[in-house]
């Protein structure tokens, strides 16, 4: 599903990733870990095409993402959901509208949008907060909305960048439960984190970035 082959990326001539090779299989839930600044976020951005590699090839769902033409990227991104650490919710829009926006961008009709938004709100147990605004929600509730927004387009791939970094242990467990649920529905999930408690005992593959490449992999 996701394959990196000898991928390198630098910012201002400072190497972030170097000759990195890795793969994530279709339907897998896997983790990327390493210290802050190791390149975890950059790796996810390369998958999402918000960054391009300097060298190497990235293939996602049989598409060569590393060489994709700019005009094709918006359609490509429709198959990828992204969960950000800093939420990136629109504070002047309700929970419902934050989630619906992803579908409106795809020009879906209003009846279909309503159906999908209501369904995904049920999945993250946030139906009762549909008319609330993000500043009125707790951190855990905001992260649930972010997950719902990523899920609503029914993506093939879900990328999560430090998704529990701002949450207490109880909400952390709740969000990880959501990711496991999403994965059981067939979505490939890749989570970048430095938090060992997220993957310890998970029985999932953990790819460890060290010295700018995948140094080793372990089972969580």
Keyword list:
220 residues, alpha/beta, six-stranded mixed β-sheet, four-stranded antiparallel β-sheet, 7 helices, single chain, 28% strand, 33% helix
State the helix count: 7
Number of strands: 10
Largest sheet: 6 strands, mixed
Shape: globular
Helical amount among residues, as a percent range?
A: 25-40%
Helix/strand structural class: alpha/beta
Instruction: Provide the β-strand percentage band.
Output: 25-35%
Strand order of the largest sheet: 6-7-8-3-9-10
Please provide the ordered H/E string of secondary-structure elements: EEEHEEHEHHHEHEHEE
- Give the C-alpha Rg: 17 Å
- Low-confidence parts: none
How far the N terminus sits from the C terminus, by CA atoms, comes to 21 Å
Mean pLDDT value: 93
Task: Please describe the topology of this protein.
Blueprint: E1 2-11, E2 14-24, E3 29-33, H1 40-48, E4 55-60, E5 63-64, H2 73-77, E6 80-83, H3 95-105, H4 110-123, H5 139-151, E7 157-161, H6 169-184, E8 188-192, H7 196-199, E9 205-210, E10 213-219
Parallel strand pairs: 3-8, 3-9, 6-7, 7-8
Antiparallel strand pairs: 1-2, 1-4, 4-5, 9-10
What would you say this structure looks like, in words?
- By secondary structure, the chain is α/β, with parallel strands linked by helices.
- 33% of the residues lie in helices and 28% in strands.
- The protein has helices spanning 40-48, 73-77, 95-105, 110-123, 139-151, 169-184, 196-199; strands at residues 2-11, 14-24, 29-33, 55-60, 63-64, 80-83, 157-161, 188-192, 205-210, 213-219.
- It has a six-stranded mixed beta sheet, with helices on both faces. A four-stranded antiparallel beta sheet has the order 2-1-4-5, covered by helices on one side.
- Strand 4 (55-60) and strand 5 (63-64) form a beta hairpin.
- Helix 3 runs parallel beside helix 5 and helix 4 packs across helix 5.
- The longest helix is centred in the last third of the chain and has 16 residues, at 169-184.
- The radius of gyration is 17 Å and the shape is globular.
- The chain starts with a strand and ends with a strand.
- The mean pLDDT is 93.
